[in-house]
Design brief:
8-stranded parallel β-barrel, binds phosphoenolpyruvate, alpha/beta, TIM Barrel, 8 strands, about 35% helix
């Protein structure tokens, strides 16, 4: 698929999955992609414990490595947390912030997500800011209002098309096998695009907007083909190289 607009990105979020036994998957993926002419960028976000190892087994490939979260401070007394600087130092190019699982499980607010995105920018990372409505909000006709509010509240000052990516991830579609229709995805993405133009001016047109939520090889081409969809954020189907490449193939 050839799409006009910003260069697409297919990003894999391993969440809290993976020990060294899983390193065979990124190694396989790098091998599969070696001779393929891609029309998208590819990113793998493993757990922090595997960042260096994943990078090492994919050495020589064009696949980038990212973090799944970061603290808003560069260093300090924050036991168990990881800073954007540390991710950068480990070889990451990007960091996911505001994933709905963190918003729900760690009570992360838009304000906090904005601080994390800003910390990512400060460390030279691309911040992938996640937004999306719950099923209740969708049923209540509040989807566009919710994503607008999250976008406005989570986008930090200094966000540009080069340092920021938005991931629209309906909460009810994550890990459930359910997806919105292509028309519903296109409606939300064009709404986000219009909001980005209001918030960022001309640069808003260049920000990549990923769709995330139960993307798999069988639905990737259709979802990626929707207007203003500039790639995918993939959870479950990014864990196996054979599945992940099936999604990347939407851009071959
Ligand atoms: C995600 O966690 O960002 C995600 C989209 O998960 P899944 O692809 O498994 O729905």
């Amino acid at each position: 698929m050839v799409k006009t607009g910003p260069r697409p990105l297919v990003a894999g979020n391993w969440k809290m999955n993976g020990t060294t036994a899983m390193l065979k998957e990124p190694r396989l993926l790098a091998g599969m992609l070696r001779d393929i002419k891609l029309k998208c960028e590819v990113l793998v976000c493993p757990p922090a414990t595997l960042i260096r190892r994943v990078k090492s087994v994919m050495k020589g490939s064009r696949i980038r490595v990212g973090g799944q979260d970061c603290h808003w401070n560069a260093s300090g007394a924050h036991t168990g947390d990881i800073s954007a600087e540390m991710l950068k130092d480990a070889g990451c190019t990007s960091v996911i912030v505001g994933h709905s699982e963190r918003r729900a499980n760690h009570a992360e607010t838009d304000e906090l997500v904005s601080k994390k995105a800003k910390a990512g920018h400060g460390a030279g990372l691309i911040a992938i800011i996640c937004i999306g409505e719950t099923l209740e909000q969708r049923k209540g006709g509040k989807t566009l209002q919710v994503v607008s509010g999250q976008l406005k509240g989570s986008l930090p000052e200094g966000a540009t098309a080069a340092n920021t990516i938005i991931a629209y991830e309906p909460v009810w579609a994550i890990g459930t096998g359910l997806t919105p229709t292509v028309a519903e995805v296109a409606e939300v993405h064009s709404h986000i695009r219009a909001d980005l133009a209001k918030l960022m001016g001309d640069d808003g047109g260049g920000v990549r907007i990923l769709y995330g939520g139960s993307v798999k090889p069988s639905n990737a081409a259709e979802l990626m083909g929707a207007a203003n969809v500039n790639g995918a954020l993939v959870g479950g189907a990014s864990l196996k190289a054979a599945d992940f490449i099936g999604i990347i193939k939407a851009y071959m």
